[in-house]
């Protein structure tokens, strides 16, 4: 199978109907980057910057981070890298930050909430990214955005740092793309302005599912209780896709489910044009996407959702089995 996937490496994830889905990889450490070549990933759809903070015993300095980000961009060899600003709190506690005593850390003071309330680190990170990307394109995304005003504030902070660097006479990124992760259900119902202002939206399915089903992603007893292909969840993913289409917003999915071929096919059929996953999943996902007609799959999914089934999985599996006949 590995060899078969290797032969697909340089081929697009083009489905029978002609739709091309972009397959990106998730990363978080320098050591992850070499897989970008072997896996055939078109870029890094989620770079979890907090990992480099978590492996240190003290807060990294701006210049050190700038060097690190420049090395990440070099290793990506011109392919885009979506740097997600620090997603700490919840399960990720920095050893050199005062631990917060919170009853529900997953719903607590985490991610962009910390970034906006204590902006020193967000500003430092933005400066490091802007310096690292001098003269080349830069993609930044914010974790756990819950309403438009949070996105506005975080985006303004990054733009302000860019303008500041320019005013100091330094070379700035040739292009700056700023996106939001959609990980809390409320954001799907944000005003149209949110969808128009973001350069892209990336659904963080791990968190989105935990909040949609109220099922803790860290709790073994409940984490797999609800199917990702549950009709309610798919209707919700379809709504997000529709809102993006109406507003011309680029949409991707970067949670773990994007690396499961059947789930990936369903997301692609629902209009998720970019899927970001662990590198080893790219081959299997691409292989399936190339064998199906995504427009036909969309019809099957829409029909199943209209029927009122609890999960569309059996219908999708039967349809897939019939494709091979
Ligand atoms: C997610 O929530 O789906 C996601 C991609 O981010 P993380 O797993 O780092 O929370
Ligand atoms: Mg998340």
TrEMBL record:
Transmembrane segments: none annotated. GO terms for cellular component: cytoplasm. The gene is ptsI. This is phosphoenolpyruvate--protein phosphotransferase. The chain holds residues 423 to 747 of 747 of the full protein. GO terms for molecular function: kinase activity; metal ion binding; phosphoenolpyruvate-protein phosphotransferase activity. Belongs to the PEP-utilizing enzyme family. Keywords: Cytoplasm, Kinase, Magnesium, Metal-binding, Phosphotransferase system, Sugar transport, Transferase, Transport. It is found in: Cytoplasm. Its main location: cytoplasm. GO terms for biological process: phosphoenolpyruvate-dependent sugar phosphotransferase system. The keyword GTP-binding does not apply. The keyword Magnesium applies.
